[in-house]
Structure to design on (271 residues):
């Protein structure tokens, strides 16, 4: 490859990828009773200093399972669940188009437990069963419902304990396809995550490619335990281990919500 070609590629990767994907949701009913939750005040949430609330290296979070389920039925599409005050999370889609979010059990990377489509600028509630342990990722039906694990991207991890507290974090260990903000809904003021775009300016070797062709920040830890230093250093510098998991050894990126409820906010990402 000519040097000029390499320079051109390096300059483009941080700001562009393949043509933007604009998936269209299937036909789903959107009950107005719970489809439009109140819009969160992101500036107010993030104005609370990290020193003002309890943060944990792990706390009551359960981040992995001993076994994987290889088969399962694809759940029906939903527009969100009725919010009756029970345990669960709100999902705010801060993108400019419909987006889908996939909720996985820790023990099953192949088929989501449930998934929801959320309109641009809208917020929905997703209820969770007792003792749920898993994650939410952004994605598309094409890539997330094919029965193949799609781990590359930002993970919002969470777990309910036997007191119905919910513990959670934002993790970049498996990559970063965009920012995510997480906050407690128990009036503690705790929050983690980030909303800024960290793709621009990243070194070429900090990127990986999704099956869709979208360039995203690579995983910081490989499945064999080795480290991707370029992406790890970039994540440390741009976000930091106090608000996200950059790796398993640094920071206190976990919070708890004692009423079993989290809010989440999803800026535009790369699908």
């Amino acid at each position: 490859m000519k040097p000029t070609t390499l320079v051109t590629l390096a300059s483009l990767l941080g700001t562009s990828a393949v043509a933007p994907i604009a998936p269209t949701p299937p036909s789903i009913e959107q009950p107005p009773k719970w489809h439009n939750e109140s819009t969160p005040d992101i500036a107010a949430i993030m104005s609370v200093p990290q020193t003002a609330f309890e943060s944990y290296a792990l706390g009551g979070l359960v981040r992995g399972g001993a076994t994987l389920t290889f088969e399962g039925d694809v759940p029906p599409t939903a527009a969100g669940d009725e919010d009756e005050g029970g345990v669960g999370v709100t999902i705010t889609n801060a993108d400019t188009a419909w987006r889908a979010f996939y909720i996985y059990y820790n023990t099953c990377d192949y088929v989501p437990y449930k998934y929801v489509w959320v309109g641009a600028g809208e917020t929905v509630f997703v209820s969770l069963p007792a003792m749920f342990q898993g994650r939410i990722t952004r994605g598309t039906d094409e890539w997330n419902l094919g029965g193949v694990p799609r781990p590359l991207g930002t993970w919002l991890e969470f777990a309910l304990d036997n007191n119905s507290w919910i513990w959670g974090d934002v993790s970049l260990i498996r990559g970063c396809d965009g920012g995510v903000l997480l906050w407690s809904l128990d009036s503690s003021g705790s929050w983690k995550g980030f909303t800024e775009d960290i793709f621009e300016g990243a070194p070429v070797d900090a990127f990986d490619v999704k099956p869709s062709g979208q360039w995203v920040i690579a995983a910081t830890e490989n499945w064999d335990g080795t480290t991707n230093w370029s992406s790890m250093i970039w994540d440390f510098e741009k976000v930091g281990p106090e608000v996200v998991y950059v790796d398993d050894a640094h920071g206190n990126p976990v919070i708890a919500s004692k009423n079993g409820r989290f809010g989440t906010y999803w800026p535009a990402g790369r699908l």
Summary: The helical segments are 3-13, 32-35, 42-46, 141-144, 229-238.
